[in-house]
Amino acid sequence: MPEIIEIGPYRPQLLEPERFEVVVENNRITDVNIELGYVHRGIEKLFTTKTYTQNLALAERICGICSGVHTLCYAQTAEGVMDVEVPDRARYLRSIYMELERLHSHYLWFGVLAHSLHDEEAFLRIMGEREPIQDLFEYLTGNRLNYLINTIGGVRRDITPEKAAKIRSVLKKMKPLSNYLMTLLDGNGGFTAKTKGIGILPKEKALALGAVGPTLRGSGIESDIRKADPYAAYRELDFEVITEEGGDVHAKSLVRARETFESISMIEQALDNLPDGDIAVKPGEPLVKEEMGRVEAPRGELFYYIKSNGTNIPERVKVRTPSFANDFTIIEMLRGEPLENARVVIESIDPCFSCTDRLTVVDAKTGEKRKVRFE
Amino acid sequence: MSEKISVYRFMSAGCNGCDVQILECLVPRYKLGELGVEVVFTPEEANVLAVTGGINFKGKEELMKSYEKLKSPKLVVAVGNCAATKEIFDKGYPMVGPPDKIIPVNFYIAGCPPRPQAIVTAIAKALGATLEEKEGYWSTPEGFRGKHEFDSEKCIGCGACAQVCSSDAIEVLEKDGKRTIKVDYGHCSFCAFCQDECPTQAIKLTREYHLLTNDRSTENVTNEVDLLKCVSCGTYFIPPRQIDWAIERVGEKVGAYKEFSDDLKETMKLCSDCRREISAVRNAKRLLAQLSTKARAS
To answer: Closest by alpha carbon to B111, among B195, B40, B189, B172?
Structure first.
C-alpha cells in the first residue's frame, strides 16, 4: 500500500516553509507533490505601487540570502528602461559585491547541508568561519543582509584602499574554509559517503526540466550567465565555469565548493584592476519600453522583466527566480530514493522558497486555488 | 525564568534574512549556549516562539497551531520588522499579519534584519542576564544603518524623507500649528534613502542596534517644526525654515534673482490655494486688457 507522508511546511528543519507530499511504497519514494505559498507576499503587485528607486528595496527583500543579486538584476533592467550607461568603476564594484555574496550564500548552504547530515561539528565550523564575510558586508555596506548596495546607475558605496585591504584579509581567511569543504567532499571525507549516488539528476532530465545554476552544472552542463551574457565586469575577469559529472548531491556540492575558489580569485582580480572614476551616474527619465535582464545568482539564472509606461512607477515587473526553475527537479531526484534521504535531496538544490513563492494559481472560473501539482 | 529556554522558529511571508540571523546566533562567538538557550525544531519542545515574516493567509493557521502547541509559560518574540509591522510588504494582498493580530506577542526586536548580537542580547535581557560585549564584533562599524536620529537644528520639515521612504515608515502629521515628522523604525527597511535624500542632512541612521521593546508604540523617532500661517486665509501650511531654505537655493542657483528675494519671500507666505486664486484674478485681468486693446484697434 502506498503511504503518503508530509514533509513540512514547518517540520523538517528546513530553513523556510514549504510542504512536500511524498508518496512512499516499501520505503521508496514513488511520487512527490509540492505545495507552495507559505512565503507568498504579492511582490509583483507591490512593484507596481512604488517608484523605480523604492522598488530596489522591495526587490532586495524577495530573498534575504541572495538579496544583492536581486537589486543588481532589477537595476540593470531599469537601466535599460532609463537608457543609462554604468561607469566602469561601478561595474567592477558590482562584481566584487556579488562574488562576496556568492561566497556567503554557498558557505551558508554548506552549513545547512552539514546540519541536514547531522554533522554538528562541520556545521559550527562552517558557520563560525563564515561570520567574517557577514562582518565585512556590515563594514562595506552598513547592513549584514539586505545591504542595498546596487542602485540604478551604479553602486551606493565606494571601496576605498582601506576597505580593499580589509576585503583581502577576509579572503585570506576564507581560503582555508574552502579547502576544508573540499576535504569534506574528497574520497573519504565526511560528506562523501552520505551524498554520493544520492538524488541523481541525469543530464537530459536536467535540461528538460529547465534546471539552472549549480543544479544544472552538477549534471555536467556548462551554463553560466556570467560567461554566456556577461554583465558587470565579468567580461574582463578570468574565471572558469565549474561543472561536475554525476548529477548527484555530491556533484552539486562539489560545484559549489569549487566555485568559492573562483569567486575568491575573481574578487582579487577585480580589486587589482579596479578602474578610477565615478561610482554612479544619475539616471534619466524612464522611456516607454519593455526591458529584460538576467544575471547569475548563487542559485542560478535570475531573470527580470520591466514594462515601463514612461512614468516613475513601472507598469509591470516580472521576476523568475532560480529556485522556482530548480524546484521541479526535486521530484525527479526523489523518485526511487529511500525516505531518509528526502531532506538532503531537497536541500541539494539550495531551495530558496522566499524567491519562489510569488505565484498562486487561481482557477478563473471557480475561484478555486490550485496546488502546484506534479504527476 | 529559571527553566531552560527552548526557541522554536516560525516563518511565513518574510525574506528569510531574519531566519539566517537566528541560525547565525548558534555560532559559538555569540554565546547563546552560555545563556542556556537551545534552538529546537518542533513547537512541542519549545517555550519561546520566534516569529519572522509578516504572515500570509497560508501561514496564519500554522502559526496559531504552533502557538497552541507551545509549552507554558508561552513567550512570543517577533524578530525583525516584518514580524512587527509587515514592513515593506505592508500593502501586499496575501498578507494577514502582523503576528500580533493573530497571537499575543511579548517582545519585538527591530531591524531588517536584526544583528545576531541584537537577538542574543535581547534574549539575555529577557532572562535578566548580562552579556559582556568586549570583542570587536559587538560594536557596529562606521556607516552602519541603525536607529534614526534627527538633527532638529537642521531639519526644515519639508517631508522629503517621507516621500522617498521605501516602506511607508515615515509619516508627516500636522496639528495645531506644528508639523511632526515621525519615523516608525519598527516599520523601516533601513534602506537609508531618507538619509541620502534629505536636503539638509538632518536625518541620520545611527549605529545604535539594540532595539528591543515590549511596546510597539514606543518604536518611533520624531521631530517637530513650527508652521507658518498663510497671510491671506490664515491656515497653517509651511514651515518658515523651508521658505528660508528655498530662498537661499534660489539665490545660489540664479544669482540674478537675488534682489527679488524679499518679493519671493512674501509670495511664498501665501498658501497654494490662495496663490491659485490670486493668479486666476491676474490672468483674467490680463485677458480683459488684451481684449480691450484688440477691440479698440478694430
So the answer is: B189
**Interface contact A48, partner B, CB < 8 A:** no
Rg (CA), chain B: 27
Residues B11 and B89 placed together within one structural domain of the fold: yes
Residue B88: list chain A partners with CB under 8 A. 46, 57-58, 61
Last residue of a domain, one of B226, B255, B274: B226
> Is B28's CB within 8 Å of A41's CB?
no
Angle between helices A120-141 and A88-116 (to 10 degrees): 160
Set of chain A residues whose Cβ sits within 8 Å of the Cβ of B41: 11, 13
B152 and B127 share one domain: no
- The pTM of the full predicted model, rounded to 2 decimals, is 0.90
Are residue B9 and residue B127 in the same domain, yes or no?
yes
Phi-psi bin for A154: left (phi > 0), alpha (psi -120 to 50), beta? left
Domain contains B70: yes
Please give the Cα distance from B187 to B149 (Å, whole number): 15
pLDDT in tens, B156-205: 999 999 999 999 999 999 998 999 999 999 999 999 999 999 999 999 99
- How much is the ipTM here? 0.89
Residues B108 and B196 in one domain: no
- Residue B73 is assigned to a structural domain of this protein: yes
**Angle (CA) B216 B219 B221, round 5°:** 155
**A307 - beta bridge partners?**
A290, A316
Closest CA to B172 of B188, B194, B185, B157: B157
Instruction: Provide the shortest C-alpha distance from residue A202 to chain B (in Å).
Output: 31
Interface test with B, best of A6, A45, A54, A321 (most B CBs within 10 A): A54
Last residue of a domain, one of B198, B226, B254: B226
CATH number, position B49: 3.40.50.12280
Domain A3-370 annotated CATH 1.10.645.10: yes
